[in-house]
Amino acid sequence: MGEKPIKGEQKAFMTGNEAVAWAALAADAEIMYGYPITPQNEVMQYWTRLAPKYDKRFLQTEDELSAGFTTVGGVLAGRRAFTATAGPGNVLMQEPMSMAEAMRIPTVVVIQQRGGPSTATVIYSQQEVTLTCFGGNGEGLRIVYSTSSHQELFDYTIKAFNTAWKYRFPTFVLADGYQAKMRESLVLYDPQAKGIEMVPTESFVGKPGTPGEDRPPAHLRNTYNTEEELFDVLSKNIREFEENAPEITEYEEFNTDDADLLLIAHGIVFRSAAMAARELAGEGQKVGYFRPITLRPFPQEELRQAAAKAKQVMVVESAYGQLLKLVKENLYGMEVPIKTHLRPGVGITPEEIVADTKKILGEGE
Amino acid sequence: MKQEHFLQPVLEAYIGEYASGKSENAVNRAVQLAGLGRKVTLVDLDLVEPCYTLRPLKKTLEPKGVSVLAWDTDELIGLGETGNILKPEVRFCLRHPGDVILDIGYGTFGAQVLNLVEGAAEEPDLKVYAVINIARPMTSSVSAIVEHVRLLNKVDGLINNSHLGGETDLDFVRGGAQIVTEAAAVLGLPVVATAVMEQLAAGVGETDWYGHPVWVLHRYLPEAFW
Q: Which residues on chain B are in Cβ contact (under 8 Å) with A10?
């Protein structure tokens, strides 16, 4: 065992990708599998710089399909394993992550969204929401945390390992190229020093004893012979996903009582929306925000309660309606009008949101 | 002959980790020299993120008398991560008359990037400064800085640029000055300066707690939002 990478707490100034690498170290991840792609490269780069020091491992595979499958394999062997990718790499990862979903393998994947479709830009977008939540064949039984700062990248990367291993669903940390590359201060910490217990990992295969005699056999499958058999397995998984959802979902809200306009945003765009809402609230306007931290499972009840108190809502995102789709689904049956501020592939400033909000509220008068 | 021809040109390269502040120090140094009426060329040698650092600042810096060697947006097509093309003038930047300040990205490879610059290896007056921020975990202690700087090949001096962005206070800068001073002693290198942002400058004075010059930084990089 190498020494502890972080002792107690330590103030630091770094890029988001580095924050992810340090978080994985702090969470005592054992191995990263990966294939280079911008804007997540420095996750790999820092992990490989740090790995020899702390007795960690890294495998660069030939593509993201393999990076995903080797992550699944590492976890099957009981390793606290993770990978990170973006854009077209996230597309390729969907096949292995569907397998993880089918077999309830607790993989951890960090996504730094870039512009799409295809190779598009290496820079930024929020266009991987649908892909990350629902990109596989199947029902999207995954957990997706959308972070908005370096501190959250650090906190939720650590948390993702615990969520994955506790609930045994593939868990994603969804950020973006801006969060990946920008520099920001944060506090690094040893989870233990904060009282965070890491959920222990265990091997899925090669357990001691004779299968069928000393223990139940490890019968791991992603293939079924009949529709009914698949239906039974899926029904159980769906039930467990839904039963655990209230415990997993996270959200944040502000000024939601009696809002003339409720801004709905996630990830880094949430920061702009929050600044806009606070500025407008400071001017006496009834503007609030609702931010889903988990995009999957979605904080449905909480959003419905907030939306029920609002005259109208506005979905703000750097995509053409991916968060909007989730919001519409979760507000189904409600009559609250939904406005939008959709800017696929580009950043959104608080000033733009303030201007748009003023226009909308002005129209209402 | 004009006076500037008698002056020894300042040739300096700034290297360091991501977020160490190498670009901010390079930009400020270039502006400072230009303010003295010197001819200054600022060179973007960031091979990882060439579009994100000096390019958006060209329009700010050129009226201040700094000639910036960096691509313009319309000169590039979207190569993405496939690679970047070195601007031809960058290869020959040391032949520019006057002072030449190089902002070298991807600090982990350090001075190796200078291999791309004609004459860099033979130029005795080219100084390479490692910019150190103790808020970076891999340069947060004396032993870590010593290890880091030894990996950088040629380094002629250290700059204490310890900061936490907008949350920096003087205690943090002072802590950085102490650690960087101790690391410099182990390495046998001078501490060229302690850099502080202008809001904190009044609390330090002209020299830091260990007698090193204080460089006052105006923060240009927050304007480099692409």
A: 137, 140
User: Token pair of A339, please?
Assistant: 């406005």
Which chain A residue is nearest to residue B132, measuring alpha carbons? A13
- For the whole model, what pTM was predicted? 0.91
Domain span(s) for CATH 3.40.50.920 in chain A: 253-364
CATH number of A253-364: 3.40.50.920
Whether chain B has a CB inside 8 Å of the CB on A184: the answer is yes
Q: Coil, strand or helix: which one is A63? A: coil
Chain A residue numbers with beta carbons less than 8 Å from the beta carbon of B136 are 12-14
Question: The domain spanning residue B53 has which CATH number?
Answer: 3.40.50.300
**DSSP at A254:** E
The CATH number given to A9-194 is 3.40.50.970
Q: Which residues contact A277 (CB under 8 A, 6 or more apart)?
A: A254, A255, A263, A287, A288, A289
Whether ipTM tops 0.90, in short, is no
Report chain A residues whose CB lies below 8 A from the CB of B163: 13
What whole-number distance in Å separates Cα of residue A112 and Cα of residue A35?
Answer: 13
Residue at B43: amino acid letter:
V
Q: Three-state SS for A189?
A: strand
CA–CA separation, B199 and B212 (whole Å): 19
Side chain identity at A160, as an amino acid letter?
A: A
Full strand arrangement of the beta sheet holding B214-217: B66-69, B40-45, B99-104, B11-16, B126-132, B157-160, B191-197, B214-217
Give the pLDDT of residue B110: 64
Range of the domain at B143: 3-223
User: Directed axis angle between helix B170-187 and helix B142-150, to 10°?
Assistant: 50
Residue in B81, B137, B167 nearest the CB of A185? B167
Name the band, by pLDDT with cuts 50, 70 and 90, for residue A365.
very low
